[in-house]
Amino acid sequence: MTTRDVLGYTRSKRFIGPQQFDQLPANELVFALRLAVKACDHLDADVGHARFEGAYVLQEQENSPAIPVVYVISADSDTAARRIHQFVWNQNQTPFLIIESPSTIRLYSGFAFDREHDRSLAEVARDAAEQLERLAAFRAESIDDGTIWMQWAHAVDPKQRVDETLLRDLVTLDRRLQDKEGLDRTASHGLIGKYVYLNYLRARGILSDKKLEKWEIDPDQLFTKHATLKAFRRVNDELQGWLNGSVFSLGDDALATITADQLKLVARVLPVTLRLA
């Protein structure tokens, strides 16, 4: 018997599996759900396997906006579970995540992720009776009537959400560039903004290896600790003629003040900070 069966999700129309995504209004949630399926299906072989089982949502009526409460995912290794937890946190969509493994059921906050340790809210043996006892607030009827929030609202800390964490990290990086690296405010903000933009394009396949190769730019010289001012200037020039290169623009005066070490710092830190899906 699966966790979905034990918690009553299988019998509920509010549990949306991959085959039912089209029943939801086309919006950001449907896009996020499809990305979650893709993330599970495309884990590296050495990480393990995972499967997106579905999401339990709140929805007032058919075709009205749906709000996810719990994602349910099966994973065959701790590494796969952690990778998927990080992905779900990065999506910033659901407050809770249940991950089934062959021996245990783990409950996580979907809005929090510890970079150093695997911190679950609860770990339950894969036993129907224990699941019913310890995860009673996550039964379908308990979500529907709001009981879940009486017992678990404390676990949804908005300060741990990816957008709040990202903002704090960017502020910290900005302070270091200005206070310790000696970069002026305009150049610091421009450099950070430009790298956020570049990473966005990179993560979505727009700034692909093929595109960079066409421009004769080595990705390692743009997105790693080996970044060079030459590659950075080159991609800026190419973006001017291809996309809106003026987004987070850096004027010649600001660009001239950036050193190789300052560029390497931002190139090294931002991909880790952003964790773009």
User: Strand arrangement, largest sheet?
Assistant: 1-2-3-4-5-6
| Secondary structure category | alpha+beta
Total number of helices: 13
The SSE order reads: HEHEEHEEEHHHHHHHHHH
Shape: elongated
Tally of domains: 2
Protein traits:
277 residues; alpha+beta; 2 domains; 6-stranded mixed β-sheet; 13 helices; 13% strand
How would you sum up this structure, described in words?
The protein has 2 domains: 3-158, no CATH class; 162-274. The model has no long low-confidence stretch (mean pLDDT 85). A 6-stranded mixed β-sheet has the order 1-2-3-4-5-6, with helices on both faces. It is an alpha+beta fold and 277 residues long. The protein starts with a helix and ends with a helix. The chain is elongated, with a radius of gyration of 22 Å. Helices cover 48% and strands 13% of the residues. It has helices at residues 3-6, 28-41, 78-91, 128-134, 140-144, 147-152, 162-180, 185-203, 209-214, 220-223, 229-242, 252-257, 260-274, and strands at 15-16, 50-58, 67-75, 96-100, 104-109, 122-125.
